[in-house]
Amino acid sequence: MTLKFPIIILIFLSFAVTAQNKMKSTEELIDKKDPAWATVKDWIKTAKNKVEVLPVDASKAKETLYKTQVTTRSTMGAVVFMTGGILVDDGWIRILGSGNSKFNRTLPDWNKGKSFKEFGEKPSFTLIADDAIGGFYLLNEGGLGTDLGKIYYFSPDNLEYEQLDITYSEFLGFCFNNDLDKFYEGNRWNGWRQEVSKLKGDEVFNFYPFLWTAEGSDINKNSRKIIPIEEQYSFNLDLRKQLGFDQ
Predict the structure, then answer these.
(1) Contact partners, residue 28, CB within 8 Å, separation at least 6
(2) How many angstroms separate the CA atoms of 81 and 74, rounded?
(3) What CA–CA distance (Å, rounded) separates 33 from 40?
(4) Angle, helix 75-82 to helix 168-177, in steps of 10 degrees
(5) Phi and psi (nearest 5°) for 31?
(6) Residue 211: what are its φ and ψ, rounded to 5°?
(7) This prediction's pTM
(8) Which of 146, 109, 111, 104 is nearest to 125 (CA)?
(9) Which residues contact 53 (CB under 8 A, 6 or more apart)?
(10) What is the pLDDT of residue 21?
(11) Dihedral pair phi/psi, residue 78, rounded to 5°
């Protein structure tokens, strides 16, 4: 008789974990009554900054939405399902969607191995966008602080996770309408727009001296080369460890 109680608990816990990890189908995630894309489209139409919505592949969009496990009633789900990604300021900022030949990364695939191991797991954060100088925008899912649902900027000029105190929807507004010259003051070199417009969506500019050093503070004097964004992300994390930020 004494063994029954722990067995029942074990079965219950196993059921709870299974239920927690069960992924919703694509059909369950597509909200036909109140999708957020209409709202996002209106924001794009009235955007002050240059915004390019990359074409979406329908079958790939369904797969990406399934892996992301976010409903299209949310703005993130709408961007994932309805776009191959969004480029702002000639590609200076790249907002992740379901991938495109011009921007060959999807939101869930880019996050796998970084914020979670297997699809269906709850991530500690979600990488939602990045920029041409190796900065990364992250949605806090609990791994960055107590302000769940807020955006952080992993800045290349100080290697810190900077709290922006905005939601994903507000982040889109920031990209579309904010004074990006002011936000990136000191990090845009002469002739940047022409160079950035030719950059692929899985590439970034790498600078030397590093932007976070005193020697690298004048970006017009730095040398720069194009490298894969995966390499830059790993490099940034390694530098944080070497500098003792993650102890």
Answers:
(1) none
(2) 11
(3) 16
(4) 60
(5) -95, 105
(6) -65, -25
(7) 0.90
(8) 111
(9) 44, 83, 86
(10) 61
(11) -65, -45
Report the DSSP beta bridge partners of residue 93: 88, 131
Q: What is the DSSP string of the chain?
A: -TTHHHHHHHHHHHHHHHHHHPPPPHHHH--SSS-SHHHHHHHHHT-SS-EEEPP--HHHHHHHHHHHT--TTSHHHHHHHH-S-EEETTTTEEE-BS-BTTB--BHHHHHBTTTBSSTTSPPSEEEEEEETTS-EEEEESSSS-S-TT-EEEE-TTT--EEE----HHHHHHHHHHS-HHHHTTTS--TTHHHHHHT--TTEEEEEES-TTSSTTS-GGGSEEEEEEHHHHHHHHHHHHHHTTTT-
Q: Which amino acid is at 161?
A: Y
Report how far apart, in Å, the C-alpha atoms of 156 and of each of 126, 135, 138, 205, 228 are: 18, 5, 14, 11, 15
User: What is the spatial distance between Cα 9 and Cα 4, in angstroms, rounded to a whole number?
Assistant: 9
Pull the structure tokens for residue 148.
């769940």
- Average pLDDT, consecutive stretches of 10 residues, N- to C-terminus, the chain (247 residues): 40 40 88 92 98 96 96 97 98 97 96 95 96 98 96 96 97 98 96 96 96 94 97 95 82
Helix (H) or strand (E) holding 149: none
Q: Can you give the pLDDT at residue 34?
A: 83
Which two structure tokens, joined as six digits, stand for 17?
């974990």
